[in-house]
């Protein structure tokens, strides 16, 4: 039995790594039938797969399309696990809660979604406030989930001021979370000016987030 | 089979710079020139072949007036497709009028050193290095000596080029220009040594030669070399090189006419020497800076002449090798980029079977390794465009568009995953965002190309020739040094 379990976990990991959606879904069902806990299926199977895809993406060995597709596979597998996950007393090991969104006025969320995928793959629980998100939404969600990190993305120079507004609002509401920014309109200098941590791509956003929660390498 | 540019695979149409009636008129007037004015033939054998076939020859002036029927009959004997084989058969390709191919430019006398950036006389090592890079470049099909080595005995330079190429490149080889019969014989001997004899060479022609006619209206000694090549079954690229305003009329149509008539004359000689032999039309006109009188390769007029010659060759159903997407620039710079792109795009859109264009600056005289890779990048971009695109249920993705809906995106779709690898990808083009570009050392495409060239030379390995063949080639080169007239 133990061997079977191990084989299923490997298959979960490999099917995500090699972008085989049906195989991932089948392996997820087999995992449940074999008595693998949903948390274990995620942490020792699916998440390992997507972490590797994420690392390969950072090293330019895999493509953005592949990373996003791997994330789609992962979420379709998690959907299968969800009913069991809700029943189970076991909780996923969460590194930190992150609130993430694209600032008000900006509908560009592909980069923000990449950051979410990479953070989730690395053990962060991401609360996505979506695109064109009002400043209040960042603040209220951060309060609600007890966020350790808040991240705001802006692609357009016309909406980059939104990043300052989110930062100011977090401070005004005395929310004790680290503030990260990114997106094509953001720069290192701008981050400094508004008191935020800057990252230029999804890979470095994960590194920065890990540093902020004291898990940096 | 070698990588190819599938022109019009999906419905894109060729560019034609003349109406059908105008192309007919160029042809009729070419026949008229050959029959009434005649062409001067310096080659003894060429003149004898024409005379024997019925041309009216003036022995004193060496002018042969070629009756139209001789030209017309010779045209019927030209075969398409033309096979272009290679040292390694996986690199073989066929000029079939439906696909386009890439050859390097030739032949320079100086090199911009890859390491020092200095412009210096070119060497045999440059031939070896650039041949090795071409071996690495998947979509480059043929190597034409990018430079000639200046440190070897000049009268045997072509054989030294061959030796350096065959030891470093498994692709088809086109000579820089074969000027005389004896040289051609040695070149063919080397090629035969590699494939296992002359009979096999006829079956698998791994070399072809550039043979220039002279403007206006002369077939020079190079004709002898073309005759050797057709008899060996290796195709000559029958080239005309009118200098617009100097050796041809100042007008595009005049240059088209003179060039076309010369190519038809050489074609007729080749088909008389070896009926049915594979031959290619070839053109490399140059334009003049009318202020200074300096000849520049690629002013718009010269590009139009080339495109018109492509149209003539397609009209005759003979493959065409278009020479040079040159640039007058001294550096791999913006000027080199736009001159080369405009010319290459024009030739391939016109339907050129093969062009020689990558690697040289200063009107085909100076090798730049950086430019070689940048030009290759231009080619892969053109190749990606001119094939066109399919319009099918799968490619239109109607159902997918409805499924993704309003405001969604396609990044996570299986359809995207299935098709994204078809997207062109850069080798040296810088596509990074500003921050990443700055952090990476603010590199331009030229910097990337330099690094890539160094990397290829360091890591790419070409399977060596068997020892006995290697030795045989070296013996042939020594023989040629002793025996070629000098």
Task: Please provide a written account of the structure.
- The complex is a heterodimer of chains A (217) and B (486).
- In chain A, helix 3 (38-58) packs antiparallel against helix 4, helix 5 packs across helix 9 and helix 6 (135-145) packs across helix 7 (161-172).
- Chain A has 217 residues and is an alpha/beta fold.
- Chain A has a five-stranded parallel sheet, with helices on both faces.
- Chain A starts with a helix and ends in a 5-residue tail after the last helix.
- In chain A, 46% of the residues are buried.
- Chain A contains nine helices and five strands, in the order ααααβαβαβαβαβα.
- In chain A, helix 7 links the parallel strand 3 (149-153) and strand 4.
- In chain B, 51% of the residues are buried.
- Chain B has helices at residues 20-37, 44-53, 68-77, 124-136, 157-166, 181-195, 198-203, 222-232, 252-273, 300-316, 334-350, 369-386, 393-396, 398-404, 414-419, 434-439, 445-459, 467-483; strands at residues 39-41, 56-58, 63-65, 82-84, 93-95, 101-104, 110-112, 119-121, 142-143, 172-174, 207-212, 218-219, 236-240, 280-283, 287-288, 295-296, 320-323, 354-358, 360-361, 366-368.
- Helices cover 46% and strands 13% of the residues of chain B.
- In chain B, the strands form five sheets. An eight-stranded parallel sheet of chain B has the order 6-18-17-14-13-11-10-9.
- The model of chain B has no long low-confidence stretch (mean pLDDT 94).
- In chain B, helix 2 (44-53) crosses helix 9, helix 3 (68-77) crosses helix 9 and helix 6 packs parallel to helix 8 (222-232).
- In chain B, a hairpin with a 6-residue loop joins strand 7 (110-112) and strand 8 (119-121).
- Classes of the chains: A alpha/beta (217), B alpha/beta (486).
- The A-B interface holds A 19, 21, 63-66, 68-69, 71-72, 107, 110, 184, 187-188, 200-201 and B 407, 409, 411-414, 416-417, 420, 433, 435-436, 439.
């Amino acid at each position: 039995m133990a061997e079977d379990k191990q084989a299923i976990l490997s298959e979960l990991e490999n099917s995500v790594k090699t972008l085989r959606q049906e195989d991932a879904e089948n392996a997820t069902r087999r995992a449940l039938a074999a008595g693998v806990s949903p948390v274990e299926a995620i942490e020792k199977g699916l998440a390992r797969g997507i972490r590797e895809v994420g690392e390969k993406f950072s090293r330019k060995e895999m493509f953005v399309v592949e990373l996003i597709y791997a994330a789609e596979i992962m979420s379709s597998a998690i959907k299968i696990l969800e009913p069991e996950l809700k029943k189970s007393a076991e909780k996923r090991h969460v590194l930190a809660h992150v609130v993430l969104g694209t600032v008000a006025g900006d509908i560009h969320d592909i980069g923000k979604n990449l950051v979410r995928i990479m953070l989730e793959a690395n053990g962060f629980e991401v609360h996505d406030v979506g695109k064109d998100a009002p400043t209040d939404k960042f603040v209220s969600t951060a309060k609600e989930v007890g966020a350790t990190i808040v991240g705001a993305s802006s692609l357009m120079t016309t909406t980059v001021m939104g990043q300052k507004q989110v930062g100011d609002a977090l401070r005004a509401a005395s929310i004790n979370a680290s503030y990260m920014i990114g997106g094509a309109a953001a720069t290192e200098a701008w981050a400094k000016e508004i008191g935020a941590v800057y990252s230029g791509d999804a890979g470095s956003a994960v590194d920065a987030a890990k540093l902020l929660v004291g898990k940096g390498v | 089979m070698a990588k190819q540019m599938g022109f019009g695979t999906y419905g894109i149409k060729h560019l034609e710079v003349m109406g059908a009636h105008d192309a007919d008129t160029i042809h009729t007037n070419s026949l008229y020139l050959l029959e009434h004015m005649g062409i001067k033939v310096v080659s003894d054998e060429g003149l004898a072949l024409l005379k024997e076939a019925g041309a009216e020859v003036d022995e004193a002036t060496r002018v042969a007036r070629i009756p139209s029927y001789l030209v017309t009959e010779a045209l019927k004997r030209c075969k398409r497709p033309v096979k272009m084989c290679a040292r390694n058969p996986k690199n073989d390709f066929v000029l079939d009028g439906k696909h386009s191919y890439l050859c390097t430019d030739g032949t320079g006398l100086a090199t911009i050193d890859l390491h020092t950036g200095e412009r210096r006389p070119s060497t045999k090592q440059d031939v070896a290095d650039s041949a090795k890079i071409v071996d690495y470049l998947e979509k480059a099909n043929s190597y034409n000596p990018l430079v000639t080595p200046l440190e070897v005995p000049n009268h045997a330079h072509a054989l030294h080029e061959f030796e350096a190429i065959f030891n470093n490149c498994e692709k088809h080889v086109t000579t820089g220009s074969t000027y005389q019969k004896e040289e051609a014989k040695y070149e063919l001997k080397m090629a035969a040594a590699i494939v296992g004899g002359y009979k096999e060479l006829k079956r698998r022609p791994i070399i072809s030669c550039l043979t220039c006619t002279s403007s206006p209206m002369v077939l020079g000694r190079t004709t002898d070399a073309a005759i050797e090549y057709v008899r060996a079954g290796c195709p000559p690229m029958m080239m005309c090189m009118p200098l617009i305003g100097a050796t041809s009329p100042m007008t595009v149509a005049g240059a088209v006419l003179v060039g076309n008539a010369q190519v038809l004359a050489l074609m007729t000689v080749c088909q008389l020497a070896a009926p049915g032999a594979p031959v290619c039309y070839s053109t490399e006109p140059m334009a003049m800076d009318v202020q200074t009188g300096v000849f520049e390769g690629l002013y718009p007029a010269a590009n139009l002449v080339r495109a018109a010659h492509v149209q003539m060759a397609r009209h005759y159903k003979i493959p065409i090798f278009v020479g040079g997407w040159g640039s007058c620039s001294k550096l791999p710079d913006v000027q080199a980029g736009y001159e080369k792109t405009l010319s290459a795009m024009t030739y391939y859109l016109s339907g050129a079977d093969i062009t020689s264009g990558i690697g040289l600056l200063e009107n085909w005289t100076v090798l730049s390794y950086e430019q070689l890779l940048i030009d290759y990048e231009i080619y892969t971009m053109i190749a990606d465009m001119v094939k066109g695109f399919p319009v099918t249920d799968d490619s239109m993705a109607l159902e997918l568009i409805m499924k993704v809906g309003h405001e969604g995106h396609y990044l996570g779709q299986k359809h995207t995953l299935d098709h994204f690898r078809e997207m062109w990808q850069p080798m040296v083009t810088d596509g990074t965002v500003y921050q990443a570009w700055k952090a990476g050392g603010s590199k331009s495409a030229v910097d990337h190309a330099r690094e890539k060239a160094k990397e290829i030379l360091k890591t790419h390995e070409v399977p060596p020739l068997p020892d006995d063949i290697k030795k045989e080639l070296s013996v042939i080169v020594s023989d040629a040094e002793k025996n070629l007239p000098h």
